[in-house]
Amino acid sequence: MNDCSSPRLHALLSMLVFTLACGNGSSTIELTLAHSASQASLIGRTATEFARRANEQLAGRARVDVFESSLLGSDEIVLQKIKLGTVDLGLNSTVMSSVVDEFALFEMPYLVQDRQHMQAIGEHVFWPFVGARAEAAGYRVLALWENGFRHVTNNIRPITTPGDLRGLKLRTPASPWRMRLFESFGANPSPLPFQDLFLALQTGMMDGQENPLSNIVGGSLHEVQTFLTLTGHLYSPAFLVVSTEHFARLPGDIQSILVETARATQAFALSEGARADSVLIERLRDFGMEINEADRESFANASLPIYEAFGEFIDGGRELIDSVLTLGGTR
């Protein structure tokens, strides 16, 4: 029996479509961009803006189509499809640490101070070291965008110190580092795809979660959560990722347009993220959420052991952390 859903067949069909398109100058090369966030999130808006700009420059030779909200699969599945060539571009965040260990640098709490610091990290640490490790694993990062500063919501109580998380069933992305962090705070973290989060909170399967403000609003999580605590415990970049192998098969001018447009879209992502920091807090307050500031010093102090673990687990991990701290003027 023929299995029409097999990854191998999908890959062969994708290559056939690409070959036919390239062999006919009048055909348009269709490029899929997939992510798991909602259209209303910062990731969703940035993906749409990138596609708009790229399609304008591509002028019919190729076209980028965006598939949001895990329509083409979870972040993990999309990374697999990128390798197979059945998805062309993926926009993700935390999941990269599951395929390239060095991406866990961005799992270190309170490491990134602000967006200016993040830009310095990109120039001096990410592109020379972390991005290079991605290429060795078969992935090429075209751009470093933003997911945002992450905060905690829940239905049980306001969170001021790490001890207030004790016993809470907390959804996290599928990151062992994130789970380890919240376990150290006393919570009971569990990984869950973002598309399943609303129902899990609504039914009480989870008490809370942690996400950037744009994902909280974009996913309508305020409808099923009472308390928002501004922990700012992590800054999550967003990575526009392609397969090193399959991307190289595109015509050179199309590659250049995609790379240049991706880099140019970073300014949009950062400015939208900064705007969201102020606007969305007030919107969530208007929606009825109870909002409080965390004691960030107590959270930062409780997070120190995970720095040590990263330094021991990642070859050169301590040096990466020290480089980031030096760029922020905290070392």
Low-confidence stretches: 1-24
From the alpha carbons, calculate the radius of gyration and give it in angstroms. 20 Å
Distance between the termini: 63 Å
Order of helices and strands: HEHEHEHEEHEHEHEHHHEHH
Beta-strand percent range? 15-25%
Number of strands: 9
Tell me the major beta sheet.
Answer: 9 strands, mixed
- Helix % is 40-55%
The gross shape turns out to be: globular
Number of helix segments?
12
Mean pLDDT: 92
Helix and strand content put the structural class at: alpha/beta
Describe this entry's structure for a reader.
This protein is an alpha/beta fold. Helices cover 47% and strands 20% of the residues. Strands 1, 2, 3, 4, 5, 6, 7, 8 and 9 form a 9-stranded mixed sheet that branches. Strand 1, helix 2 and strand 2 form a beta-alpha-beta unit. Residues 1-24 have low confidence and may be disordered.
